[in-house]
Each structure stands twice: as structure tokens, then as C-alpha cells.
Amino acid sequence: MSSSILQQPAQQLPENLQTTSDQQWQKLQEGLDAELFEGLKALPHAEKIIVCSEYVVDSMLRFPYLLAEMLEQEWFTAPLNAARMRAILQAKLAGCSTENDLHRALRQFRRQMMMRIIWRDFSFTANMWQTTAELSDLADICVDEALNWLYDFYTPKWGTPYSKEEEGSAPQPQRMSVIGMGKLGACELNLSSDIDLMFCFPKHGQTQGGSRSLDNQDFFIRLGQKLIAALDVNTVDGFVFRVDMRLRPYGQSGSLALSHNAMVEYYHDQGREWERYAMIKARIIAGDLDGGNALLEELNSFVYRKYVDFSAIESLRDMKSMINREVRRKGLFTNVKLGPGGIREVEFITQVFQLIRGGRDTELQERSIRKVLPIISDLGLIPQGVTDELLEGYLFLRNAEHALQGVADQQTQTLPEDDFPRLRMAYIMNFDNWQDFEARLELERAKVSKHFANVIAAPEDEEEQDDSQSAELGALWKGEYDPEGGARLLQEQGFEDSESTYRRLDSLRCSRVVQGLQREGRERLEAFMPMLLQAVTESHAPSQTLERTLLLVEAVLRRSAYFVLLMENPSALRQLVKLCSASPWIAEHLAKTPILLDELLNPATLYTPADIELLRDDLRQQMLRLPEEDEEAQMEALRYFKRAHVLRVAASDINQTRHLMKVSDYLTFIAEAVLEYVLQMAWKTLTDKYGVPAKADGVLCDPAFVIVGYGKMGGIELGYGSDLDLVFLHDAAPQGVTDGDSKGKKSIDNGVFFTRLGQRIIHILNTLTPSGQLYEVDMRLRPSGNSGLLVSSVKAFRDYQLKEAWTWEKQALVRARVVAGSPEVAEKFAQVRAEILTERRDLNQLRDDVVSMRIKMRDNLGSKPDATGEHTSFHLKQDAGGMVDIEFIAQYCVLRFGDQHPELLQWTDNMRILETVEQVGLLTPDQVAQLSEAYLVYRQAAHDASMQMVPSVVPADQFTEHRANVTRIWQSLLESR
């Protein structure tokens, strides 16, 4: 037991237990020879164990030779790990020639180990976790060794089972796997527990080499029956473990042993929610471990859904209700397992989080409560203080359970009613009296009950709902209103386009998809829709908001667990409505990736985007959960990471908690974190295959490669739908090769290596997966554009910029910066950039090139005049006086004056370039203020347009003053001669 949660042991035996102690010692003195008796009395803690465990005393008197062996081998005091216990049992089984011999050896071994385990548990020599681990090891060893003995004993008679011959392969011998469930599966078995088992075997076939051939299934059913008898039958020596097989597929009516294929087919086609709950703890404990573990891996998708699965809470709530009814019917309120605040409630709390989130947060796929509870708090699902209290309560309750069971090796969890067993139990638990123990027990149960209610109890809205309103909206959804009455009801509820909204709802309700839903999905939709309709009435434009939200509803019709998530979390539903009301872009974002609904559960993080370091850490933590070799899973995780964090930025944006510049910063940070990780992924893939390329000096590089961001990425101005303008550079030896040959890999030219590296990066970013595309990548700004090499060396890049690049390419270089890769190569790029941007130029040619390019862009991309020749609209980016004019002004200043003012090269974003332009006196403070203000106003308007999914075009009469100011400065700087 864990002394940390128990009272200090009593200094002496309580007076009311002294008589019992004297009687027990008297019986032992009379029943044992003098040497054994003296050896027993000399054991530490003997006084307490003798008075508290009738089972230990009875075992010593009935089987003194077992006690003699234990004293001789010092098993009461010396630690016995699993390997040592297995060796002891194997030695005992070596002399067994009949099944009766097997039964006797198993039972006597189990009795010795149980005497030892109870001794250590009651004396606090072992804590509760050590006790349950030893008990689980004991069960594993007994089952495995008994199975091995029986297999070897019966294969000469029944034959050895072999798989069916498959074309091109020889039949393989088959062995059975034993699956441990419940507390055994979790390695947390209690002192007198039955063991829940399931039997399976790899493939169908026939036995060979026996007196007659059997089907493999028949063989393993027989073997399973023999194994159960070896463990469960009560003989003169007792039993080993009570075996419960009711958790197997189809329960008691199902076959005792199934093939792996039959198991998979059953769970994926017929598995029920409670079986998911049970399979959380499934563990292969005996027999064919490799084959069994492969089966459990295949069943993992049945247990853990890939999405956040709030449907699990319904089934757990139903299970708990059923248990509560049993508690009331049978009067089990004093049961420390099933009663209020009992062991089962702690198990339910942990498993509800595992079933809901275990498919995505894979670290929750853990059998042990001791390990799972801290993970739950680490993930921020419940506070650490709560998990600490649950663990403390669980420890106390499990210790109390052991104190009940270790007395007589009985499977009981019910508190005693008589004075003597109460006093004995308090003494085992190190309390001076029953009243003190009971007070502590009630305190722990009250804490567990409170936390259980917070997690499992049915949700209640924070505000009282208008039941009549909800009922009417529910009737509307069910089609009980005609079009006129339905539209009138919606109008009364504030829907601005009630007739259209009614038609939209009616169309959805009558759609083939909705009509084809299974019963469970249909029931969930019918429960959810009135809640949604009521929630959207709180928005400023309910019809518009509902239309946007229905995109999500239609996306998840066949994944109704999402409806449960929103019904279980009314605050998340309110956040959904708020976001969809504010932006159709967010509504579409959520509809494309419904798993993001999980983000709505925590407003604290939803409205607080992470900075670059937190993003890197979050991405690293997410990727640590995935196998390195599973690139598909990593690509999906990257897409979820990006979409989740972009949603947080958008939420804080519409909540007006972030300035526009900060929004762009955060969106750029997300892209940087993704690019850094994608580069690592691609580098590992390529170097694993080809080895590492060499640098110009012959030193291997790790990696001499950078990703350069241009445009909005380089200028730290990404928007929600921005693509990434990228250029790839390397600094490896031009004639070098990778070191693959020295490591048994294929060696390739450095140039080929880096081209494939670039292709790999683009593949990871561009590929459409079930979660969509990570980023769209534009590589046209690389040297020679689409006709140029995908990856250039730093030297080749410099040569191109000096000898061949157009003026517009040097303008683009103003906004270029390294966003991922080698710091050493990044420094070389910075030097090349500075050299290019400060080179001496023909100033007239520079001005002509910039103006010519601007006119060409304006003519091709700007707004067009109407039939009368008038411009009725203003394109925020491309028209005269717009954003691109301001960007060109900043770029022209860098190219024109960079050689005189190198500080102009420091920044890549327009706002800070303009600030530097003012600092060095190239434009007046008023001019810079006018440009900066216009740029921010335009960007905000364009940003708002993207959120509303409309073009960046406004009526011509808007922003006239800003346009005039920008045009005036443009003309004074670039068109005056």
C-alpha cells in the first residue's frame, strides 16, 4: 500500500484485536513444528499479518511444506521480479506428467505467491502499484506457463495446428494468443480478482501429426477449455484464478476461440460502445505475443476514432446509469468499487477521455490509470489538481479494496458492518479506529463523486433555455410545420430571410443523406438541430449564420459524434455560431476540417494564438506521438496543426483582440514552424536513402540548405489564403556526391540530392490529403523562373542576380529572407542579398523599369472602366494609389539608395522599410505617415474581404484621400524628371 495516503502504523496491536492475535498464534504453534513456528515469528510484521489475514494463517496450517520452502528461500522478505517468479514456476512444472500434477503445481505456486503478496501489502513493504503489478505478473506467468504445458501435452494427441497452405508459401504452425482484459490488461490486478480473458489464433487450418486431424478452431477451443480448467477449477489445493470469458465476441454464446480475421470482422462490423471501453485495457498476456499484438494493432482503429469522439460519453453515461440502478436495487452503497465515488467512477473518468480523444492524442492510448491521469492533465483536459485528487482517491480506494480481499482471499468490495471486521480493516489501513477510517473514506469518495459529475454528468446550459421555444424549433425541424407556418415561426425568432431559411431546412431534412442515416445518427441530428436553431437566433443575421453553419452540419452528417460534441459542450456551440456569423471563410474552414471543432472547447486557447517558440514546441510535441516512418500520419498532423492554429488566429481576429499586423505575424509564424519541420522530414528521408552531401571544402553538410521566403512570406504579411513564394538554395560542393557508399546506401550527385530534397518539400506541402493541402507553393521567383533549376547553389544564385536578373527580380529580393534551414547558409544569402541590393545602378533605367512594370501590372490586374470609360470600383492592390504602389515605392527606395543607406536593407516588411526611409530622410515624416496609414487601411480592407470571401475591390468613392496621397508621392518620387 502507499504509505503516502495512509496513517502512520499503530505502535501496538489494538486491545480489541489482541484476543484474536493470541488465538491465531496458538493455532500456529500447535499446527507447525517448532522450527517453522520460530522462523515465522521472526519475520518482520508477523504480528499484524497473523491477526489480519485468515487466508495466510490457513495456508500455513494446511500447507506447512509450502511455508517451509518460503522461509528457506526468504520469499517473504526478498524481492521477486517477474523473471524470478517464472523460473520458480517452471521448476515446479518440470516434474509434472499429468494434468492433475499441473493443477496441483499451479495452485501451490499461486498460494505461495499470494501469501507473500498479501504479507508485503498489509505490512506496507510494497505500495499499491507494486502489489497490483506483482499480481498481474503472477497471472501472466500462470496463464502463459499453463498454456505452454498444455500445448506441449496435447499436440502429440491432437496434432500441431497449421495454417492453410497459401500459394507460394509453406503452412506455418499456429499458437494461441491470450488477451487479458480489465485490471489484468492494465497490470493493475487486485488481491482477489477474477481474470477476464479472450482466446484467439492466427488462421484457420488443420492439425498435423496427431492421432486424428482437427480444425484449428476446434483445437484451440479444446486447448482453451483445458486452460480454463487448469486455472479456475477449485480442487483440494484451491484455485489459481477465477476465469471470466464473457467479454469475448458474442459473449457467452460466442465461440471460445476465434481467428484473427473473425475478431477483426466482429469488432469493425458489430462491436458496441461498451466493447470499445473494454478493449482500452486489452493486452496480450500469454501465448503468441507477436501475433496477438499485431491483432490488437489492427483493432486499434475500432477502439480509438481518428476524430474527437464525444459519442463515447453517452455510452459511458448509460453504463454508469445501469450500474447506479444495480447499486440502488442491491443496496451497494457501501461498495468501494461500484458505489458513489468508488473505483469504477475513477476508471470511467479516465476512459471517457481516452475514448473521446485517444485517436488523435495517441499518448492517451495507455492501459494504466496511474499513467493516463497525468497525461490527461498534461494535455490540459482537466486541471492537474483534479488528477492529483483522483489519483489519491483511487489509491485509497484500491488499498481499502485490498484490505477487504486479503483477509480471506474473497472477491468482495463491500465494507463490513460488524465491529470486529471494521476494527481489523481500520488496523490494516493504519487507522486507530473505524470512525477515523470511515471519515477519510467518505472524504475521498466525495472528491471522486464531484469530479465524476463534472466529467460524466449530462450537460446543462449555463442559461435556462426556453423549453417551449426549443420544442417549437424541434417540431419545425421534424417537418410538423407547413411552409407558411414554418416561415412565420422563423420570422418570429428573428430570421431575416425566413422563407428561404425554411426551404433550406426542409431541403436538408428531406435530402437523401439525412433520410439514409442510421437510427443513432438520425436521433443525434434531431436532438442537435433545435439547439443549433436556437443558438443562431442570438446572432445578428440568423438566416445568414445558419446557412454558413449548415455547411458544417452537412459535412459531418455521417460522423454524428460531432453533434454529440456540440450538445455536450453548449459553450462550444456558441463559439461555433459566433465564428460562422462573423466569417464565411471560418465556416468553410471548419466544414473542410470538422476535427477543428475540438479547438472550440477551450476559449482560453481559441482566442490566444501562439508565438513562434510555442508553435515550434507544440508541433514538436504533436510529432513525437507519431512513428518517424509514418509519413502519411505526419502529413495529416501537419495539416491539422496548421488549420488549428490558423483558426485560433482567425478567432482572435474577429474577436478584435489582435491588430492586423499581429494577425499577419502569427500566420507567418505558423508557416515558418511548418517549413522548419517539413525541411527536417524531407532531409531525413533523403539522407536515410542516399547519405549526406558534401560541402565545397569536403566537409559533410547537415544540411547546407535554406528555404528563402519571398513576397508576403518574406515580408511577414501572410493572409489566410496566401500561397508561399519560395526559393531553395544550397551550399554544397558542385561536383560532390553524398556519402551513401560508405554506409551501404546509394550515392548520388549533390545537385541531384538537393533537387530531390526540394521536390520532397514541395510534395509534402502541396499534396492533397484527406485534410486538404498544407500550402500552395509558388517557385516562379527562383533564378530563370519555371525554366530554371528547382534548387540553385548560393554561388549560382549570386551570379544570376548580378548578370541576368531583371529589375523586378531585384525588387522581389527586397522582401526576401531565409525562413528555414542552415544559419550558416542563411548568413551567406544575407551577404549576397546585400551585395545585389547595394550595387551601383543606372538610376534613370531603374526608375523606368519600376514605372514600366507598375503600369503593366495595373493594366493587366487592375479594375476595368465601364462602357462610359469611368472607373466605378477601386482594386485595393492593383489600381493607382493602391497597395502595390506603396510596395513599389518602398522597393524603389531600397534599390535607389541602398548603397548610401545600408540600414534600408535590414527589414523585409514594408512598414519598417518605410520607417527607415523616414529615418534616413528620403521622404518627409508626413509622406511616410500618409503611406503607412494608407497601407494599413488597404490591408485591413483586403483582409476583411478575404474573411468575407469577396474580392478586394471597393466602390470608387472609397479611400479617395488615401489614393490621392499615395499617387502624389508616387509621382514626386518616380515620375518627376
From TrEMBL:
One of its GO terms (biological process) is regulation of glutamine family amino acid metabolic process. Residues 1-20 are annotated as: Disordered. Residues 48-294, 574-831 form the Glutamate-ammonia ligase adenylyltransferase repeated domain. Residues 317-455, 867-943 form the PII-uridylyltransferase/Glutamine-synthetase adenylyltransferase domain. Keywords: ATP-binding, Magnesium, Multifunctional enzyme, Nucleotide-binding, Nucleotidyltransferase, Transferase. Coiled coil: none annotated. InterPro entries: GlnE, GlnE_rpt_dom, NT_sf, PII_UdlTrfase/GS_AdlTrfase. This is Bifunctional glutamine synthetase adenylyltransferase/adenylyl-removing enzyme.
